[in-house]
Amino acid sequence: MVQFWYEFASSYSYPAAMRIGRLARESGIEIEWRPFLLGPLFKEMQGLSDSPFNAFPPKGRYMWRDLERICEAEEIPFVKPKKFPHNGLAAARLALVGLSEGWGEVFTRLVFSANFARGEDISDPAVLEPLVTEAGGDTRKARVRANSEEIKDRLKSNVDQARARGIFGAPSFVCDDGELFWGNDRLEQALAWSKQH
């Protein structure tokens, strides 16, 4: 099994989320989807209150062009969001609800598409709630549960576990033996490692 650690505001988590299901099926590897928040880790580890891609403009310009190339090669739709990053807190909480109810993977891909294929504001409930329905969830029940202490604590726990595993960016992939792979371009390597070890 491979844990897939992703942040909805993360640009490189987008192609990873769109590719991982197919690649995992082809490899015969089970995926555990683990949404988390990068903000607390960036602040603790690097003293950043914003994305490194905004804090270092040359890096940001490169990232957007790189993402365009990746999406074009993978035939994944891409539109640069007008604002970056969008706050992924509400989406992460809803994803945790969905993952416990069987619609979380579909919801995750829909949220990434809203953010990076259509440039929509994924912090807006008016954007997220139709995606819950489209993924197969009950919007009203999901909204209530996403704001429960249970789900808030689960997301905090994911951040704590990410920190404990040495995760510092997204996407990250953690194999059963604890081997860590960081970045969309390490997805295939993580799956191969998991299969061999």
Automatic annotation (TrEMBL):
Gene field: nsaD
Annotated GO biological process: glutathione metabolic process; naphthalene catabolic process
One Pfam family named in its UniProt record: DSBA
Protein name: 2-hydroxychromene-2-carboxylate isomerase
Transmembrane segments: none
Gene Ontology terms, MF aspect: 2-hydroxychromene-2-carboxylate isomerase activity; glutathione peroxidase activity; glutathione transferase activity
Domain of life where this protein originates: Bacteria
Domain called DSBA-like thioredoxin: residue spans: 2-189
Catalytic activity field: 2-hydroxychromene-2-carboxylate = (3E)-4-(2-hydroxyphenyl)-2-oxobut-3-enoate
Family membership noted in the UniProt record: Belongs to the GST superfamily. NadH family.
Native source organism of the sequence: Methylobrevis pamukkalensis
Keywords linked to the UniProt accession: Isomerase
Isomerase recorded as keyword: yes
Active-site residues (renumbered): S10 (nucleophile)
Keyword Lyase: no
InterPro entries: DSBA-like_thioredoxin_dom (IPR001853), GST_Kappa/NadH (IPR051924), HCCAis_GSTk (IPR014440), NahD-like (IPR044087), Thioredoxin-like_sf (IPR036249)
Entry EC number(s): 5.99.1.4
